[in-house]
Structures are given as structure tokens and as C-alpha cells.
Amino acid sequence: MAFRSSHSLGRPLIAPTNLTKTPSRNCKFSIQNCSLDPSHSRKLVLEVKDKLEKEHHSLPVGQNGRDDEDMILWFLKDRKFSVEEAVAKLTKAIKWRQEFKVSELTEELVKSVADTGKSYVHGFLDVHGRPVLVVVASKHFPDVHDPVEDERLCVFLVEKALAKLPAGQTKILGVFDLRGFKTENSDLKFLTFVFDVFYYYYPKRLGEVLFVDAPFIFKPIWQLTKPLLKSYASMVRFCSVDTVRKEYFTEETVPPDFRD
């Protein structure tokens, strides 16, 4: 999956805006449950909403649009409640959704590349209640497959995984099955694209990434990729198939590819 213009993944340090001094707690996907005082949270959401309407009136409205208050709150949390930073990142994300035509992605549109089995959303949640997005690296051939179709499949599956989020859960698990990985499967741009998508357009939705049974030839690729990911690299865990089975699933829910 090639990404035409990879972005720098530098993370600016942003000061919180009037955060309460109470101990932090998990922030659910609603204004009322946020660690900020509800009235203050609401005020910031409306401030962002108003700025988007005045400064970016051409952006669409509705779900995932400039007036989607849940989406606004999510980006505010990501930007540590900095209104200006949230507006900037939201504007970029909403424009990207328009240009990429995310709302038009369907099973039929991505069927040809999905049929390769290179990536899919698992039918069960992991033991932490997270939807699971699986990538089978040995089935990815960047010199053969259309990178545009690969990008569409990637975004379609992210959307599909997020649609499976149960109440109270906010993040998904990414599993890279690296068994059988060879040089011809190598794609630095693919890894960069995946993490770019999550950082810029689906912030704080990726909870953990498992690199399963990584062969020796994968190590140099990781060493090249890791500096680009900055803090996101800390989400990656190298582990074995046995670890996936025992720590992330039950006997009934483990993906078929990872069964004994």
C-alpha cells in the first residue's frame, strides 16, 4: 500500500487548556464522561464547532462532518483540549475524508484486493473487547497490487473495525502476521501509511499493534520505520503466535490463522 506523500510524524507538545486537577481517568466517547468538567467540555466543543462553521463553512455537516460533536470532542482530547490544534487537525481530517471518498467505500469496491486475504477484520473481539484488524504480510506484494486499491482496503477495514466498537471501548487491536514474510513483501510506505492514517485521521483509535513471529529479514525494515513513528512505536509488541493465542483470545475467539 503506497502512500503518495508520507507525512512527518513529529508530535508537537501542546499545553492543556484549563484541565481540572482531579486525577485523570479513562475518557469515554461522550462529553459527560470526559475528565474535564462537563460544562467546560461542552464549551470547548461548541467553540470548535463555531470556528469550523465560520472559517470552514464549505466542509460537510452530519456524521464525521464539521458539526459532529462526538468527533469534535475526540479530536479535542487528542489535541489535549487545544481549540486551535483541534480545529486544524479536524479540518485536515474532514477534507481527507471528502477527497478519499471514505463514505463511498463498500465491500464490493474493495472486493478484488480483499479476496487476496492480505487483510481483514476478525469476526471476534480480543479479550480486552477490542475489534481486531489482521494484516497477513506474506500476501502483500507492492510490485503487483494496485497501491490505490490497497489504500482503499486499508481505510475500509479501519472503518469496519471502528464500527464494531462495543460500548465503552474506543480502540482497536492491529495484528501483523509476519510468518512467511520475504523481501518481496517489504513495503516501508505501507507501514508509514497505516500509522499516518491512524495519527492524522483516526487519532487514539489504535490501542496496540502486534508483530507476530517477525523473521530476521524484517528487522532492518523495522529499524528504518521506527524513527518515523515516534511515540507510536511504543504501541508495537513483537510476540509469538502462542502469545497471541494465550494473551489476546480465547480458544473460541482466536483467528483461524492462529489456531494450533
From TrEMBL:
Q: Report one GO cellular component.
A: chloroplast stroma
Pfam families associated with the record: CRAL_TRIO (PF00650)
GO biological process annotation, one example: cellular response to phosphate starvation
Write down the SUPFAM superfamilies for this protein, in alphabetical order: CRAL/TRIO domain, CRAL/TRIO N-terminal domain
- Out of the domains of life, which is the source? Eukaryota
Q: Which GO terms describe its molecular function?
A: phosphatidylinositol transfer activity
Q: What is this protein called?
A: Transporter, putative
The scientific name of the source species is Ricinus communis
